[in-house]
Amino acid sequence: MIRSHLKAALIQASFSDDRDENWHKLKPLLEQAAARGNQLVVLPELHNGAYFCQHEDNREFTRAEAIPGPTTEFLSTLAARLRLVIIGSVFERRAAGLYHNTAIVLDSNGNLAGSYRKMHIPDDPGYYEKYYFTPGDTGFQPVQTSLGKIGVLVCWDQWFPEAARLMALAGAECLVYPTAIGWDPADDENEQQRQLDSWVITQRAHAISNGLPLLAANRHGHESGPSSNTNGIDFWGNSFICGPQGEILSQAGVNEDCLLETEINIDQCEKVRQTWPFLRDRRIDAYSGLTQRFLEDIAAGITNGEKTTNGEKND
Asked: Domain count of the chain?
């Protein structure tokens, strides 16, 4: 079980396409986190290089590596020396032609405590991840660490309440989202604000509905697209940590490299769940439809074998 108080940090940064340069940036931030008494540090998604999924090009597969591999070795050495639990990100080469977007968890002794393969894979303009990543098969299982059970999910997973709930039901004591998300530079200011608000609100809702603290680590900065035909992506930063009632404990700005840290009162989670007993009142007998893609009969106004008109059951 996570101790009653957890000092946790996120690293928000911009990244170049030079892995060693990015590691050189991350190392002093991790050292600073340890010196300031943090126990857990979360890095953004795909922090080894540029966000290459802006296009589809098989040359990008050369970025992939095995687990364990160079990134696990780099982070495990730091985790052991600094006595930190570190959550990092790897473009995993599982086998020839089989690749994943994988979060890795290094325990404070340097051991690889576990990993999570991203389950929800986007395929949108600028985010062509389905070309590169096979959907995960590790399920929604928290990783046991020296600090407790950590529910690690990745980026696009953050929009799905089912993923957060299943992590909570499996005993996760906090939710963590390494992320790479941003705006199309062509979006106007109002559209950008709507998207950012949606991102923050959705994740705060996961914290509230599960009575768990949540940490979301994003990258920031403009990354050009692979050709002059694309606008690139303005990664919007705004990494944050919130408590089990969705309260913002710490939040970064749009364009800054920073170590974002806070102390989380884990004991508060049980008190919150006692006050708002969502897990007690779940109607698990009535949720079978959640395993279906779409409930055609209900959408067509058919309930219990009888057609309805204007939403009312015919007598």
From this structure: 1
